[in-house]
Amino acid sequence: MDTFLAFGAGLSFLLAISEFIRNKGRKIQGTDLGSKTKSAFNQPIGFFFLSLSIVQFHLYLELSNQLKEYLWFAEIHIPFLFFTGPLAYLYFRRLGGLTVRALNLVHFFPGIVSFLFLLPFVLSDPNSKLEYVSVYPPRNIYFQFLFGLLVLGTVSNLVYPLLLIGKIRKWKTFVQKEEARVFSPFLALFYASIFVIFLFVIAQIFFMPLFIVAAAALTLIVCFVFLSASTSPDLIVSFEKTAKEAGYNETRLQGLDVDAVIQKMEELMRDKKLYLDEELTLPIFSDELKIKTHQLSEILNDKMRIGFREYIAGFRLEEASKMLREEPQRSVLSVIYAAGFKSKSAFHKLFQEKYGCSPGEYRSSLSNKP
């Protein structure tokens, strides 16, 4: 098991080196999309894997009982614990189109503070460090604070996967169902990360034997990331494209109470029967709703999964079927125009698709019923 943990640390380090080399290559080549932009996208994940490799290597030394031989490395991983969550979060948010200016450096403040708090321990003599790694729970007040910082760093990493899960689940509502499938592997990754972090928290506070299970699970996640990147190199590209599209659609609807707009749409259709106006268009309907045309289009296409014509036609067909039932003396042609349709052929086609018969057959079937 110790070898497996060391392998995980090495794999994370190689992934970090790979990202840094790839980033440097883009700077040199100057790709079409702009090397500066692309390097900004890849730097966070490179530093993420570097931080993760330091954390994993510390786990390896600790669980293999070698930490006492490398006391200079003891607890050096604590600041990096605070960095892993923000780095992963900022990387995926950048993929979704979040600008560099919008990335708040406050995310890294806890890591910087923990580094400053750790300095006295780093500069202390080997005997003090040996006491800390040998005695559990720690007796010294400073050591107790240090241990608390370790637990806090672990717990803090629960926040970022939860934020990303919430964001991705929201993004899924702003793209087509087929496109949203690209988010599934990443959601699985974040759920697995939460489970592993939870194991670490339980191990640190309540049940230390669980620590090795959590460490092994973390290595498995790194292996999953490596294999996914190797077998599906376009996965990140697809994620970035879909996330940006979802973010763009979300921005277009920002400030709107979408549910309230949808309710207002239903009221205008049911009460005022706007669909009876054969000249009803998307701009006219959006004016009635007091929103912009593109916003109405986004609500119909992305939230309701229906086009404007199909949406209006649904109400017109219901109205036409009602007239055919309740006004047997009325001609089919009169029903067509009264329901808001402009074209006889379009009406017959849509009616056939919805009810499986012609308007005449529909009316006849009603009259034949006892």
Folded structure, characterized:
The structure is a single chain. The chain is mainly α and about 375 residues long. The chain folds into 2 domains: about 1-250; about 255-365, Orthogonal Bundle (Arc Repressor Mutant, subunit A). Helices cover about 75% and strands about 0% of the residues. It contains 17 helices and no strands. It has helices spanning about 1-30, 35-65, 80-95, 110-120, 125-135, 140-170, 175-180, 185-205, 210-230, 235-250, 260-270, 280-290, 295-305, 310-325, 330-340, 345-355, 360-365. It is elongated and about 100 Å long. The model is unreliable at about 30-40 (pLDDT under 50). InterPro entries: Homeodomain-like_sf, HTH_AraC, HTH_AraC-typ_CS. Pfam families: HTH_18 (PF12833). This is DNA-binding helix-turn-helix protein. It comes from Leptospira johnsonii. Keywords: DNA-binding, Membrane, Transcription, Transcription regulation, Transmembrane, Transmembrane helix.
User: What percent strand?
Assistant: under 5%
- Supply the number of structural domains: 2
Helix content: over 70%
**What would you report as the Rg, rounded to the nearest angstrom?**
30 Å
**Low-confidence regions:** 31-42
What's the gist of this structure?
The chain is mainly alpha-helical and 370 residues long.
Note the main attributes of this structure:
17 helices, DNA-binding helix-turn-helix protein, transcription regulation, 0% strand, Arc Repressor Mutant, subunit A, single chain, HTH_AraC, 370 residues, mainly alpha, transcription, 2 domains, transmembrane, elongated
